[in-house]
Write a structure and sequence with these properties.
Elements lengths: L15 E2 L32 E7 L3 E7 L3 E3 L10 E6 L1 E7 L3 E7 L2 E3 L3 H4 L7 E6 L5
Antiparallel strand pairs: 1-4, 2-3, 2-5, 5-8, 6-7, 6-9
Length: about 140
């Protein structure tokens, strides 16, 4: 049996994955023949939401890369996320587990210590993907 590092976002480490994950409505047309409004056609498939979370500011320390939403980030990651990279999608980060409490919405970008500007550092207990972003 594989030993799971305590820094991994895993049910073996107390993390609770959201099995009812939803990113909202998605329209995709594989060809020019489509139904409905021409403006609704997506020419490139959107990327699935993905983030990388770090234990310390400046993208240092333990890290985990995921495309899953977590009702609870686990005992190791609870109140420890200090910086992150939103690779794609729009994500909502919550102060409390089960998507409760204060929250912050972030789109693609590098957030070296974004909690310093938006609120106290190291307060995240759950997060979820709430929207897709276009592929680049």
């Amino acid at each position: 049996m594989r030993e799971i590092p305590k820094t991994e976002l895993s049910p073996d480490n107390g993390a609770v994955i959201d099995t009812k994950w939803q990113v909202g409505p998605l329209r995709y047309y594989a060809c020019a023949a489509s139904e409905g409004n021409e403006a609704d056609i997506v020419t490139v498939a959107p990327r699935m939401p993905e983030i990388v979370v770090y234990d310390h500011t400046g993208f240092r320390g333990a890290y985990a890369r995921t495309n899953l939403s977590f009702l609870y980030v686990g005992d190791f990651w609870n109140d420890r996320i200090s910086s992150l990279i939103v690779v794609s999608g729009v994500w909502r980060f919550y102060r409390d587990e089960y998507y409760k409490g204060d929250h912050w919405e972030l789109g693609p970008g590098f957030y070296e210590c974004f909690f310093m500007e938006r609120g106290p550092d190291d307060v995240i207990s759950s997060f979820q993907a709430i929207a897709l972003t276009a592929a680049v």
